[in-house]
Amino acid sequence: MKKIIPFALGLFLVFSCSQEDPNEIVDPSVESIDSQKILSISEINKYIASELKQNGDIVWRNAPANVLYSAVIHGEGVLSVGYGNQGESFSKERSPRLIEARENILNVIQTKDEVKKSSALIAADEILNVIDVKINRLETIITLQKTDQIRYLDPIGYGFYLQQDTANQQKSAGCSQSGQTINSGDYRVISPNARLPWNFDIHKITQAWNYSTGSGITVGLIDTGLSANQNLLGNGFNDGFSNGRSVQRFGTYIDSPWWWSNNIDGPNDRCGHGTQMASALASPRNDDGMPVGVAYDSNLVAYRGTSDVVLEDYHERKGVSNALKALGNRGDVKIISMSVGYPWSIGNVKDAVRYAYRKGKMIVAAGGTSTTFTNWYGVIFPASMSETVAVTGLKDNGYNRCNICHDGSKIDFTIVMQRAGDGDRNVPVLGFNTGSQAYVGGSSVATAMTAGIAALVWARNPNMSRDQVLDKLKRAGEFYPNRNNKFGYGNIDALKAVQ
After folding, report:
1. pLDDT per residue over 101-160, tens digit each?
2. Pure H helices in 161-231
3. Taking a C-beta distance cutoff of 8 angstroms, is the pair 284, 195 a contact?
4. Can you tell me the distance from the alpha carbon of 443 to that of 449, in angstroms, rounded to the nearest whole number?
């Protein structure tokens, strides 16, 4: 039986692109910028590890200039620049000040890099106050770090920190298309012939269905897409007792050998993780002997924003940001489920989260699942943001986090999703292909299930605001009115939440 790692943060990349001293990080104030010193990947990763352990995040604008410059160069020379005042993540109509700030950035690049603005500009977002630019020189970075009206400078193409073996290894974090045999003790059959996952009763989801099944609520899912081979998430979405609802799929992830390409790869899952999350959230209450989802009467809008669960390259970060904006603009979408993330904050994704939040969306995000950082790292991004609802997973023997789950002060809720006696027996879900099933675990499935419970609550109270629905979830938490320093409000009682 395979071991599911829905958010495998992996091991540090250990190879080096140069023979330089790995302990040396050069301060450009004492070294001539003409040297254009490019640090090795191992040197950059050493800086990253230090910042994460000391501060829990990385503010790249405050990094030594040569570290930021080197990360940009290793990331295909792409720099993401957020402009405006702090907190000014997006603008419906840009003021003259914002336009001037954007132009000033391009003027700096034109002068220092000695290139035309048109060749430096890769993308200018229409909603978010951010541009992606091509950088060639260290001096440009130094100047931009001193420039006013810049919120962040992100090496958005740098993705070598979490690679497991070599830079060319195929990523597989959270991906699986293989079906599995489900232990008969991990489900029971309910009408009209659907399999009810074992942990649903723990959270009183079946009892909550007497009041709400999610009908009329639309949930957005940002993940790896939906499998074109899984009929119950396609033409069979209205199967058995599920009826009158819709499923839509879109793609914002750019899968191309050229980082500047604008060719969208499509909405279909090539990983398997998105299909599993959609199942836990909204699989139909079918008559095919397959697992049912929490909100089996809700509508689903699935975005393929990433190739796997680790947001480690330009295309994935851009894809997730664009998906957040698109879902934020939809009046029918109430909830956004995101079982994806990264150890440090990503500027354009953070901006997009704030945009969707301002639009009234409840954004449920995975607290983190890994084999590397569970002993010292807290909640990952974007679950670490105050605008999101952070969720993690527990074993079925009390408040013990799952083997690979993160916890911490920023967690809001927990879901029981792992058998204490067998780490491979997690939550049964639909498999990648019609007729197949699989187990899925970690904070990923806990997040999707929480989004489903939120849909049940909102369907029961359709005129409520996001904050009112969130308050109901909090009041249904086991620790309410208190808050645990590792597990937030704790396990959600879905029946109490909908009553």
Report:
1. 999 999 999 999 999 999 999 999 999 999 999 999 999 999 999 999 999 999 999 999
2. 205-208
3. no
4. 10
SS3 84: coil
Q: Which residue has the higher pLDDT, 22 or 322?
A: 322
8 Å CB contact between 222 and 251:
no
Please count the other Cβ atoms lying within 10 Å of the Cβ belonging to residue 269.
28
Cβ-contact 367, 406 below 8 angstroms = yes
Question: Bridge-partner residues for 413, per DSSP?
Answer: 391
Distance CA 413, CA 478 (A): 9
Is the backbone of residue 472 left (phi > 0), alpha (psi -120 to 50) or beta? Answer: alpha
Look up residue 152 and give its two tokens.
């962040």
The DSSP output letter for 242 is -
Contact 122, 78 (CB under 8 A): yes
| Average confidence score pLDDT of the chain | 90
Which structure tokens are listed for 201?
Answer: 């009763």
Residues 252 and 169: their CA atoms lie apart, in Å, by 23
Pairing of strands 362-366, 187-190: unpaired
Q: Is 162 helix (H, G, I), strand (E, B) or coil?
A: coil
Question: What count of residues does the chain have?
Answer: 499
Query: Beta strands of 279-323 (E only): which ranges?
Result: 299-304
Beta-ladder partners of 123: 132
